[in-house]
Design brief:
InterPro entries: NAD(P)-bd_dom_sf, SDR, SDR_fam. This is SDR family oxidoreductase. It comes from Aurantiacibacter xanthus. The structure is a single chain. Helices cover 47% and strands 15% of the residues. It contains eight helices and seven strands. The chain has a seven-stranded parallel β-sheet with strand order 3-2-1-4-5-6-7, with helices on both faces.
């Protein structure tokens, strides 16, 4: 199935690993010209080279911090008029006790998870509106819809982001510019593998055992964590030509960990 984005320019912030990398890979497979940003240069370059080899797509690495003014300027200089904007970032630390969250952690989470994507949208939306085509997908977190103390820093800022993006989506929809959010639960990302790998070592267990225990404790109906490439596939779907009538949505991808009719 041709999803209609061949030759489109796609900017993926935070795309060197995890769901961001999977999003870049999925879009590259569909023939988009890819610009991937991240802060760690060696991992970024390696990811871009791997994606280019596998897909034959044009994949450009841009090493920059997308939460800083300087980083945004560098990124938008490399890709000034993207047709597609995908935003994600390394998640903030888990917060098992709300009293231990510092002001510095709040400021960092707000800058990275809320203000950065808002500023990028503000920079690129006018061009999308003028060209009468645009797709924006924010990869957020299921905690934006279903709050949990351990995801305070991630869930609260991205709940605000979802509110903002849904509001703005109503303004630009008439110009064939659609904005949607993905709210993933637990997936085998680099962050999760590092965190749960450390837990496994501390407990004298395997990574798989610790993941299984977490899935049981949090009542994940699928009884496992998800694959980041599955999230990437949904990014491609929301960026497709066929998604022109889907806007202002926040899709939960959590293996049935949460319960909601709508």
């Amino acid at each position: 199935m041709d999803i209609g984005i061949r030759g489109r320019k796609a900017l993926i912030n935070g795309g060197s690993a995890g769901m961001g990398r999977s999003a870049a890979l999925a879009l590259a497979r569909e023939g988009a010209d890819i610009f991937v940003t991240a802060r760690t240069e060696d991992r970024l370059v390696a990811a871009c080279e791997e994606i280019a080899r596998e897909t034959g797509a044009s994949v450009t690495p841009v090493c920059a911090d997308h939460s800083s003014d300087e980083g945004r300027q560098r990124i938008l200089a490399a890709c000034p008029d993207p047709d597609i904007l995908v935003g994600t970032c390394a998640p903030p630390p888990m917060t098992p006790d709300y009293r231990d969250v510092t002001d510095e952690q709040w400021r960092s989470a707000i800058d990275i998870s809320l203000l950065s994507p808002i500023r990028f949208m503000r920079e690129v939306l006018d061009g999308m509106v003028e060209r009468k085509w645009g797709r924006i997908v924010n990869i957020a977190t299921v905690a934006a819809k279903y709050p949990a103390e351990i995801r305070l820093l991630s869930g609260s800022t991205r709940a605000a982001l979802a509110n903002y993006t849904v509001a703005i989506s109503k303004v630009v929809a008439k110009h064939n510019v659609v904005i949607n959010n993905l709210l993933p639960g637990m997936h085998h990302s680099a962050f999760v593998e590092k965190q749960f790998g450390e837990r496994a070592v501390a407990a004298g267990k395997t990574y798989d055992e610790v993941v299984q225990e977490f899935a049981q404790d949090w009542r994940i109906a699928a009884e496992r964590f998800g694959d980041c490439d599955d999230v990437g596939a949904f990014v491609a779907m929301f960026c497709s030509e066929q998604a022109n009538y889907i806007t202002g949505q926040s899709l939960v991808i959590d293996g049935g960990a949460t319960t909601s009719v709508f």
